[in-house]
Design a protein that fits this description.
Double Stranded RNA Binding Domain, five-stranded mixed beta sheet, single chain, 8 strands, three-stranded antiparallel beta sheet, 16 helices, alpha+beta, 48% helix, hpI Integrase, Chain A, 3 domains
Length: 390
């Protein structure tokens, strides 16, 4: 393999081979190699011997990547070589030390640690994990988090906006901002590259409410796709509950004629009681039950239902109404309750809201749970829905 006394100018002038790659060792720095690929990429590698080969009994040849040129200049490569060589002379494997260091300094390592330390108890853990893995991790898989700047973040977010997903871009912006802020607090980086960075787009507030004929169409379409998603959609309409509150519903959470959710199952972190109207009770009594399964709505008995998107597309193909989302059912129920002259405080209690009329000092001192009022309102709403359908 060729050896040269490398200088910064010589490294810059090196031309890539027509195919494959070539290794040029730096004379005077044993084991330090500049690898040049046919695509023009240049990277520093350190070859050294550590440990014994169990078959031959001779020292085993190892290699360790040091960095990419020009991000790692010749001077920086020489310094990295000195540190690694000292580890070898001291009987230690420098690659092992590097692995321990980068586990908490490269972006994938920090991301993994952030998920474990900051996101593990959040109900949105899996969705956040998938969001960053799909939209960010590939671009930053080999980047040190301390080297990520404002431009790097904007490149990732702008790419999401450019493909026509401004809502996703806003979500990525929010989670990355929290990750960088957490990293500053943990002493991993000195500053947040997203400080004062505006959101990539203004996400409009949704105000979609299904009209009576649309609600009937969705109800009937849900009946046609059947259990488990069809019944779950109908129960969402009758209760005004959140999708995951019903989708992950367990039989043990059904106490008599009510659904009782503990604090871990609600968005606001407070226990929530959902009275079941006669139509809701009738629906649940007809739901098939899988022996040994804790879940009301499940495909295999071991996990709660997932894949709402596919189920909704089936409903859409039957209902044939204007675009809507599952969460719009909750808004439709709330609007319907208001039309039935349900007091605002009762509607908010049904929805499990702690803001609005129950925010601030009022929420602290006004602890009435509106249990009777909630039951009466949901009975009226259930009767209204069935009347519409029939």
């Amino acid at each position: 393999m060729p050896k040269k006394a490398l200088t910064e100018a010589a490294v810059q002038r090196l031309k890539p081979p027509t195919s494959g790659q070539i290794d040029i060792f730096d004379r005077g720095y044993p084991g330090l190699c500049l690898r040049v690929s046919y695509g023009g990429g240049k990277s520093w590698t350190y070859f050294y011997r550590h440990g014994l080969n169990p078959q031959t009994g001779k020292p085993r040849l190892r290699r360790m990547g040091l960095g990419i040129y020009p991000e790692m200049s010749l001077a920086k490569a020489h310094e990295a070589w000195r540190v690694a060589r000292q580890e070898v002379l001291s009987g230690r494997d420098p690659a092992h030390r590097r692995k321990l260091e980068t586990a908490f300094t490269d972006f994938p390592g920090v991301f993994s640690e952030w998920l474990k330390r900051d996101q593990a108890k959040n109900r949105s853990y899996e969705s956040v994990k998938r969001l960053i893995e799909k939209n960010v991790l590939a671009a930053w898989s080999h980047r040190q988090i301390a080297h990520l700047g404002r431009r790097d973040v904007l490149d990732v977010i702008d790419a999401i906006v450019d493909r026509g997903s401004p809502v996703t871009a806003c979500m990525v912006h929010a989670h990355l901002h929290r990750l960088f802020k957490w990293s500053v607090g943990r002493g991993i980086i000195n500053s947040n590259p997203m400080a004062d960075m505006p959101r990539p787009a203004i996400v409009p507030k949704r105000d979609r409410v299904l009209a009576d004929d649309e609600l009937v169409a969705v109800w009937k379409a849900a009946g046609k796709i059947g259990w488990p998603f069809g019944d779950a959609i109908r129960l969402l309409i009758l209760t005004g509950a959140r999708r995951e509150e019903i989708g992950q519903l367990k039989w043990t959470e059904i106490a008599g004629d009510s659904i009782s959710l503990d604090a871990a199952r609600t968005k606001n972190g407070e226990p929530h009681l959902i009275p079941l109207s006669l139509p809701a009770m009738t629906l649940l009594q007809r739901v098939p039950r899988i022996d040994g399964s804790p879940f009301v709505f499940t495909r295999n008995g071991t996990k709660a239902i997932v894949g709402w998107g596919a189920a909704k597309r089936r409903v859409d193909s039957i209902a044939g109404i204007q675009p809507w989302r599952i969460h719009d059912l909750r808004r439709t129920t709330a609007t319907g309750l208001q039309k039935l002259k349900t007091p605002l405080q009762v509607t908010e209690a049904i929805l499990g809201h702690t803001a609005g009329s129950r925010a601030g000092v009022i929420g602290i001192y006004q602890r009435h749970d509106y249990a009777d009022e909630k039951r009466a309102a949901l009975e009226a709403w259930g009767a209204h829905v069935i009347a519409l359908v029939q």
